[in-house]
Structure formats: structure tokens, C-alpha cells
Amino acid sequence: MKSSWKMDSRILDYLMLVLIQSIAILAVTDNNDFAVLTALRSSWTNLPRNWGDGDPCDSNWEGVNCTGTRVTNLSLAGMGLVGRSISDVSSLTALQSLDLSNNVNLSAILPPSIGNLRNLSVLILIHCSFYGPIPDSIGSLQQLVYISLLGNRFTGPIPPSIGNLSRLSWLDLSDNNINGSIPVSSETSPGLDRLLNARHFHFSRNQLSGSVPSQLFSSNMSLLHARFDGNLLEGSIPPNLSNLRSLNELYLANNNFNGNIPNLTGLINLTYVDMSNNSFSASGVPEWFSSLQSLTTIIMENTRLQGQIPVDVFTLPQLETMNLSNNNLTGTLNIGNSYRNNITLDLRNNSITNFQQSTTNYNMDVELVGNPVCNTNGRAPSRFCSIEDPRVFIPRLSNCGAMSCRGDAVLTPTCQCSRPYTGTIHFYSVSFSNLQNVSYFNSLNGTLMSLFLSDGLPVNSVIASNPVIDLYSYMQFTLQIFPSGQDSFERRSVSRIGFLLNRQPFHLQYFGPSFFIDQPYCCFSGSNNSSHVGIIVGVTIGGFILVLMIVLAGIYAYRQKKKAKRAMDMNNPFPSWDPEKESGAVPQLHGAKWFSFEDMRKCTNNFSETNCVGVGGYGKVYKGTVDTSHVVAIKRAQQGSMQGAHEFKTEIELLSRIHHKNVVSLVGFCYEQGEQMLVYEYISNGTLKDCLSGKSELKLDWNKRLRIALDAAKGLSYLHELADPPIIHRDIKSTNILLDSHLVAKVADFGLSKLVGDTGKGYVSTQVKGTLGYMDPEYYMTQQLTEKSDVYSFGVVLLELVTGRAPIQHGKHIVRLVQEAMGDTKNFDQIIDPNLDSRAKLGGLEKLVDLAMGCVKEFSVDRPTMGEVVREIENIMELANVDKKTNHTEFSSSSFEKSTDESPLRSYVAEEFDESYGSFPFRVERN
Ligand SMILES: *[C@@H]1O[C@H](CO)[C@@H](O)[C@H](O)[C@H]1NC(C)=O
Ligand SMILES: *[C@@H]1O[C@H](CO)[C@@H](O)[C@H](O)[C@H]1NC(C)=O
Ligand SMILES: *[C@@H]1O[C@H](CO)[C@@H](O)[C@H](O)[C@H]1NC(C)=O
């Protein structure tokens, strides 16, 4: 029986092959282009499944568009492509548009042969892993209108030949390692000043050096956006900058510019300007502040502004945001009474001494902390002198009652389950300050929705949520795009959505230009079998073969389905997973116990609310008692955040192997009745975050903080250096460091952990997960995870211990805050946690801050290992004369005893939401 089926299937395969080949004879695609696509098919993986079926142009291979017989459009964004060369693409000589964005495993150079693509007008390679220099031959692509190479690892200079691209409108080279100076033309060489049609120069965050040449600002240029921020540029800004009368947005921040603050009076269309953190000569508030009527945003942090702010600045009709913090502004702050409502005004750390009250009720946000005016009672409204939490838009969640979805599915706004294409959209700028005003989000959703629908994409809805201001002051949102009429997207839709979001053929009110970085899509729906076969058949083959093919295709599909089911059965190791029956697939558990659902239900009073001690994106945490006296925390996954059986098994195997004093240990697990629960030891004193933020009554003096730092470092160093296999935690943060009854710190929550070693390369390349504020910027950009990413996060925790602040407050990252304060004793004193003693009593403070800053170095190679961190903290404690051992009696003080009894929230709450912390809640959903 079995063998005859096997033979049938071989005949079937053969017949299918013959049929497909006979179709190929009728091909319409140019032979050369066909050969190129075939070559790509064998050198890249994860290409759409229908590549190879029939003829590319005739049968519409996904991501390929043809004009006549030639391939003119290759659009493979977000496919998860893996490849090491794109040289073949250079032979698609009729290509007009090439988009390979969001394929981080496409790791290649841009070959000089790219210069053969003489018809190319759009080139988008955002967020892949391209490296090496940008070839000079790019200057021969005379049709180019749009280039974005953002977020790769390109090195070397900007090729001057780009200056030959006379039609170029958009040039984005941001987030690479491009160096050298900005090329301008000479008698013998082209340069960027020849790009008279350029609207967008985006060169942010590279290594560009030298001065900005004045030729770039000739009055023939028509730039809208000029982004030079985050480079090593120096010298003074050429005065003819004011020639750029069409300029909307100007970004010069974070360079080494000196000389005078430029006179922008001529830039009558300017809406957004950021010149922060440069070394300009000291100057008063420039007059253009009050004369440029279009300005919505002025950001001039740390630019040596001095003197009094003229009152007419506040009458600008469009003004939303003004950040002049960390300057030397003095005198009286007079906002007047004809200011615009809802302005956000950040004047922290200046020398303002007085406040002139013009009305009784200011409808604006002013921050004056760090000014003398806040030290004298009553001069300024007190709310201007206190640190307020940022106002954040909380997206309306659909009210779908108790509904929930399985697996990767998510509820749409209309309460259906489907699987959204998800990613992050980053805006270089926004023109509003009020993040609570829903209008802006609706406007964004609406524009994107109509973009997709007018393109014929099967999109049901779009949700933008979780606004976050990232390290680089970009506003970013999580974007979920839901499919309509089906439960997941086809590949062609995903690549088209990616293309539209990165090509930006739309104008968004209130939002500047953007780019889109996706999370690899979980679940492309297959499109080839059904519709596709039908089309070929209809077009090319007569009656008899048609019938035969339909029959064959039916059998084929049936067989594939059977195969799939068999594979699925084999994929579930758990049916045999009952310890009573000691059979095959029982996982390798080291001391972790199996609990029945009934055990769990009983010990938590039927999962009662009073036992619930924490809630997170994955579900709830309950306190319970097992084996009559053992207090545990039970983490119960909810529908929709369950892992696959294999992942769950892997996770408990991993967790059960971990045994260290400074790591929370797994007691057991439950996998029954469709539930997944992890049972941990109960840690009674809650999270480090609670202690630092004042939510808990526990107060941590300096010595306790040093001990906690040492404990946590030891736990982490164990995971990196002693656990077998080593583990990268991936989500180190103060909510994941728990304190037990003796204030011994324990590292918790390995839900997001990754084993090291499987790849053999010393890094694990994976989808970026973690918590904003703690996330290693290098990991974020390269998606390559190493132990050093944990070291970065640990550095942020150390800074929290010193400052008592959240990693991001007021959109400002703690690393930058400390960096800025470090040179200056007065400022530095201000950032130390006010709950700590005076600075003189904090032994080893400077050394600990130095260590923390070493941990958060930009490049991971410059950061210490966790082992080195442990040793350095030990040294610091020795110098500060702190006993390294936790002194038990020290903590049986009455306040501590009291707090354990009274606070119901002391517990395993590692993943609770971050609302109270003054930072933006930012969670990347688990798969
Ligand atoms: C990239 O490659 C690595 C290893 O080859 C793999 O584990 C990872 O899933 C890939 N990432 C994507 C997005 O395909
Ligand atoms: C700035 O430029 C405008 C005209 O372009 C000029 O009238 C004004 O005096 C300049 N301001 C300063 C301070 O030089
Ligand atoms: C929200 O923003 C829109 C657009 O700027 C504005 O018209 C509206 O008045 C704002 N609403 C509130 C409540 O501020």
C-alpha cells in the first residue's frame, strides 16, 4: 500500500514537471531577464514560492513586474531574503525600480556593476546589511530620482559622482558609517551642489567630517530638508545658508560646529530647526526666533544661548515646541498673554531668576527645573518647577469584550482575528507637541489607509500606537497593518506595503518624512496554488490537458496537505508529556517540577484576583503556595501570547538548568488543558524599579545600591560566562531585577532570552526585542545580538541606581543626560538621586558612573564584559569600604518588616506595564 502510493507520487511529480516545462516554452519574458531571475532563485533563499512556476512576466512572479518582455520592477521588501550578493540584479538592464528593504540577512556590497541599470529611477535598500563603499558608478544612473540607503553599514566617502544625477530628488544615506567630507563640485569633479532638483539631503548619523561647504547653499538649490545631524562636522555654518528659501527643516544637531549661530532670517518657510549640542559662540536669542512665522519647532539645547528670552518669541502663530534647555538664559521669563495654547517649552538648566505672571492660568507646558527661579518660593507656578511625566496618547483599544486570538493573530479594530504586518515607522520630525490629541493619530491612520486602498492592497485597517521618542529624537510608532478578506497577507502585499511606506508617495499633515522598519512577517499566505494555476491554464492550454491538470493539481494539493498534517503531528511533543507515563519526549529537566492544572488552580484560589500580583502583555502573574509551604509566583500565559510547544519546552529546559544565587530560579511548570504556566520562586521585595521610583517603601542607601549592582552583575555574568550554553538575557532592566527578603538582587525573566553558540559566530542575529531605553543602539541597528547588548542595558540600570531616574524622561535618554552633566559639578549634583546622601558621602560614585558610561559605549567592542564589570564593582566597593556580603541583620529594621506585610504588590512582577515610571510604555510583543 505504502510503496504503491510512493510510485504514484513519483509519476505525479513527473507529470507536473512536464506540464510546467511545456508552459515555459510559451514564455514571454526576455531570455536574459529570465536567466537572471533563475540565478537569483538559486542564490537567495526565502524568495516567493511562486518563483519558478511558469514564466516570470506572464504568470506574475511575486515581486516582479514587467513592461512587455522586460523586468522593470523588483520589489522584495520584507521577504526575509538571505543572500550574499546582488551582482545578478545588475544584469536586469531594464529595471526602473529596485526595493530590497527590510531584509537584514541580505549582506552584500553594492557592486560597481550597479552602474548598468541605466533606467533605474528608484533605489531603496533600507535596513539591510549592505557594507563597503558606495560605488562611483552610481553616478551613471541618470534616471535616478530616489535613493535611500538608510540603515546599512556602508563605509567610505559619498561618491562625488552622485552630483551627476540631475534628476535626483531624494538622497538618504543616514545611519551608515560614511566618512570623508561633503563633496562639492570643482572644475574637474562633480559634487552635490549640482543637484538642483534635490529636495532631500539626509546624511544623519554617519562619520562625515570637515566643514559644510558654502557652495551647497547656492540660491539655485531647492532643498526642503537638510539633515546633517550626528556627524563630526565642524567649522562655522556658511552664512549663505539663508539662500535656501524653500527649506522647511534643518538639522545640524550633534556636530562640532562653531562660530556664530547662523542667521536664518531668510528662511521664510522654515518649520523645524534643531542645532543642539554644537560649540557655537555664546549669543543672545537670535532675532529670527520671533520673525520666522512658519516655525513649529525650535530645538537649541546646549548651544550657549544667553540673556533674556524676548516676549515676542511666544507669539509665533504656529509654535508647538521650543527646547532651549542647558543654556545660560538669564533674567525674567515673560511669556506674555498672547501665546499659542499647548506650547511645550523646555528651559531646564538655565539661569532664569524671575517669572512674570501675566495670566492666572497658563495653558502650556513649561519646564524650569534647574533654574534659580525654582529655588525661590512662589515666583513661578509650582507645576513649572516639577518634573512632569510626558503626556502620551494612549490608543483606543477596541472593546472586543473577552475575545482573544490564537497564535500570531491579533484583534483588529473591528474585533476580528487576523495577522497584521507590523513594524515601526520613524518620523524625522512632527509638527505637534500634544501627544494626547487623537487627531494626529487619526490623520496618520487615515492617510496610510487611503494610500493602501488606492493602491488596491487588501488592507482592512491600520493602527499606529505606542508613540516613543527614541534616542535620536525621532518620533516612532508601532504600525500594525491588518489584512482584509483573509487572515494573513501574501508576499506581494507585504512587499508592496513596505515599498509604499519607504517610497512615501504621500504627504502627511503634521508629520515629516519617515522610514519604516518591519518585524519579519510571521505568516505569508500562499497564493500560488489556487489562483495562479487557474490563470496559466486559462491562457495557455486546451481542454484535455486542462482537465488532466486540474485533477493532478487536486491530488497534488491533497498530498501536500497530508504531508503537512503528518509534520504537524510530529511537531507536538507534548501528548506524551505526562510524567506518570514515562515516555519518549519528556524534556531534560533539572529539578523543575511538573504541576497539573488542578494544582495551579487550587493554589491560586481558582486564579482569583486577590492572588494576582502582576499583569503584563503575556498574561498574569499569581502568587500561590505549593507543597504546603513553598511560596511561588505563577506566570500564566494568556491566549495569544502562548509559545509553540517546542519553544515552551526549550524555554523550561533552559530555565531549569539555571542555578545561581543572583538569578531567579524556576520551580516548575504546567502544560495542560491548553495552558502554559511557569512557576518561579517568589521574590518578596519586588523590583528594583519600585524601590528607586518610590513605589515601594523600601529606601536604598548608597551601600545597598552598590551591593545590588554587584549581585545583579554577578547573576548576569553567570548567564554569560558560566551557564551552559551561555545565555543572553535580552531584556535587562530595573523591573527585571528583583530583591529578596535580604535585599539580595536576582535577575529575572528569561522569556526573551536566546541561547548563544548555535550560530558559532559569537552573535545571534534575530528580530529586535527588548525595552526602549535599555536597548543597545548597535543591536537595534544591526539586529546582531551579543552579550554586550546586555552590558549596555546593565549600564543603563547602573545610571538608574545613581540618578533614581527612568531611562527616558521627557524624551531624553539617561545616557545623554549623564553625559551632559558629567563635565560640570553643579549639573552633576543635580542629577544624583535626591534620595541619596550628599555627594561627598557616596564613596566610589565617580568610578561607578565611569563604569556605567563604559557599559553604554556606542560600539560594543568598547564595552567591558560582565566579568570585568563584576570585578570593577568589587574594586569600587573595596575603595568605598563597603562590605560585599549582604548583612542580614541590617535589613530586619521595622520599616522593612512592615512593608512586606502591607504591600500586596511585592512579588514577581517582572513584566508589568511601565505606566507609572514616567517613561513611554514600549513593549515589543512576543511571538
Ligand atoms: C537571519 O539569519 C539567521 C541565521 O542564518 C536566522 O537565524 C534568522 O532568522 C535570519 N533572520 C531573518 C529575518 O530571516
Ligand atoms: C540677519 O539677516 C537679515 C537679512 O538677511 C538682516 O537684516 C539682519 O540684520 C541679520 N541679523 C544679524 C544679527 O546679523
Ligand atoms: C487637536 O489637533 C487638531 C489639529 O491640530 C486641532 O484642530 C484640535 O483643536 C486639537 N484638539 C484639542 C482637543 O486640542
Automatic annotation (TrEMBL):
Annotated keywords: ATP-binding, Glycoprotein, Kinase, Leucine-rich repeat, Membrane, Nucleotide-binding, Repeat, Serine/threonine-protein kinase, Signal, Transferase, Transmembrane, Transmembrane helix
Location (main, coarse): membrane
Protein kinase domain: residues covered: 607-877
Coiled coil: none
Transmembrane regions listed in the UniProt entry: 533-558
Stored CDD domains: STKc_IRAK
Binding positions (ATP): K635
Gene3D superfamilies recorded: Phosphorylase Kinase, domain 1, Ribonuclease Inhibitor, Transferase(Phosphotransferase) domain 1
Localization in the cell: Membrane
A Pfam family that the UniProt record links to this protein: LRR_1
Annotated SUPFAM superfamilies: L domain-like (SSF52058), Protein kinase-like (PK-like) (SSF56112)
Superkingdom of source: Eukaryota
Protein name: Protein kinase domain-containing protein
Species the sequence originates in: Penstemon davidsonii
